[in-house]
């Protein structure tokens, strides 16, 4: 009896795809998309549906190529138009991300959050922003973990609040121009003093007073509402103000000389922070160095990292010293071991020749 090879027909298997999944009416529906195209479609960058969907077909399992039944589509979506259903799944479904892609997304989001923190913060003593690498180190030090389902800006603000508990860092001030009637200026001045704002300039023209000041961004809503109540208006000149140029006091007009001990005070916190990070880096390097140093007690020698340590056990040098150890003889170095083996080979050759 002859046997025939039976192969499944009507089954379309798709691999190396991005799967978008939607659970509805007790069933699971999936569509196959091109990688890195789903997010572009949702953000409005990609508008061609054919560039996003690999197939205008609804599956229950893309990996196995199992198609969704028409009765299930009618029960869940009220129609059996595959393209329209694919659009709904594309908009509302959950993107299934592979491990490496998820790791890449988290790494990029971590970098985005660190960039936002850098742009929104300054050193309170120097009035300058920290570098992106230092911000990332501090985020690692407070054990910050990225939430992929949360907004990067919201997470950045949470990071800033957490960093302020441990390190010298603060929100960079925003620069505003406040304009209001002359008779209401005294009320505003009292409020600005209470908010500890820094006045940059003041201009009086007729019955209006215009003042440029820098304040904490968290006070902007209260300030804007207060100025409106005083029949004035507020204008944002800069979201984030950082120190520029040389920030030493003796480069400004009308300065007063300060002692060298006083001039060093503003940078003490920064120096301590830098030293702390440098010590951690050095300690980490020392730890790695200690891990790499492996010593073989049989050969009485340091043989390197774990991989080299394993390879050493397979070497003729180690085997030769192991034989010497069983005879209670001291270990030989690698060169001595090779010389000893060559001497043994020469003796064996002479013995064979004599016979």
From TrEMBL:
Say if the entry is tagged with keyword Nucleus.
yes
Domain Ribosome maturation protein SDO1/SBDS N-terminal stretches = 16-102
Cellular compartments annotated: Cytoplasm; Nucleus
Source superkingdom? Eukaryota
The record's listing under InterPro entries reads: Ribosome_mat_SBDS_CS (IPR018023), Ribosome_mat_SBDS_N_sf (IPR036786), Sdo1/SBDS (IPR002140), Sdo1/SBDS-like (IPR039100), SDO1/SBDS_C (IPR046928), SDO1/SBDS_central (IPR018978), Sdo1/SBDS_central_sf (IPR037188), SDO1/SBDS_N (IPR019783)
Q: Where is the Ribosome maturation protein SDO1/SBDS central domain?
A: 111-171
Sorted alphabetically, the Gene Ontology cellular component annotations on this record are: cytoplasm; nucleus
Region (Disordered) residue ranges read 320-355
Q: Which PROSITE patterns match?
A: UPF0023
**A molecular-function term among this protein's GO annotations:** transcription cis-regulatory region binding
The UniProt family comment states:
Belongs to the SDO1/SBDS family.
Question: Quaternary structure?
Answer: Associates with the 60S ribosomal subunit.
Task: Give the protein name, as stated in the record.
Answer: Ribosome maturation protein SBDS
> What is the scientific name of the source organism?
Cynara cardunculus var. scolymus (Globe artichoke)
């Amino acid at each position: 009896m002859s046997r025939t090879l039976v192969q499944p027909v009507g089954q379309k298997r798709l691999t190396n795809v991005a799967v978008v999944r939607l659970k509805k009416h007790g069933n699971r529906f999936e569509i196959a998309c091109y990688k890195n195209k789903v997010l572009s479609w949702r953000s409005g960058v990609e508008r061609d549906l054919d560039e996003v969907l690999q197939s205008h077909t609804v599956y229950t399992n893309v990996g196995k190529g199992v198609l969704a039944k028409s009765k299930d589509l009618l029960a869940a979506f009220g129609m059996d138009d595959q393209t329209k259903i694919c659009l709904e799944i594309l908009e509302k479904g959950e993107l299934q991300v592979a491990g490496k892609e998820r790791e890449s997304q988290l790494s990029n989001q971590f970098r985005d959050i660190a960039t936002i923190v850098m742009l929104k913060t300054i050193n309170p003593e120097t009035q300058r922003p920290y570098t992106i690498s230092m911000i990332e180190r501090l985020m690692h030090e407070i054990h910050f973990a990225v939430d992929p389902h949360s907004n990067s800006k919201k997470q950045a603000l949470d990071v800033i609040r957490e960093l302020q508990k441990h390190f010298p860092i603060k929100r960079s001030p925003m620069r505003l121009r406040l304009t209001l009637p002359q008779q209401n200026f005294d009320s505003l001045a009292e409020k600005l003093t209470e908010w500890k704002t820094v006045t940059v300039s003041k201009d009086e023209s007729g019955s209006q007073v215009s003042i440029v000041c820098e304040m904490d961004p968290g006070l902007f809503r209260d300030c804007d509402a207060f100025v409106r109540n005083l029949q004035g208006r507020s204008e944002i000149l800069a979201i984030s103000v950082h120190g520029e140029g040389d920030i030493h006091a003796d480069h400004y007009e009308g300065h007063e000389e300060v002692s060298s001990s006083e001039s060093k005070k503003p940078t003490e916190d920064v120096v301590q922070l830098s030293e702390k990070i440098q010590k951690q880096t050095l300690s980490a390097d020392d730890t790695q160095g200690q891990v790499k140093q492996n010593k073989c007690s049989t050969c009485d020698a340091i043989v390197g990292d774990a991989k080299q340590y394993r390879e050493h056990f397979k070497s003729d040098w180690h085997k030769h010293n192991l034989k010497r150890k069983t005879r209670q003889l001291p270990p030989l170095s690698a060169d001595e071991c090779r010389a000893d083996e060559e001497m043994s080979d020469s003796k064996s050759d002479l013995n064979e020749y004599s016979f």
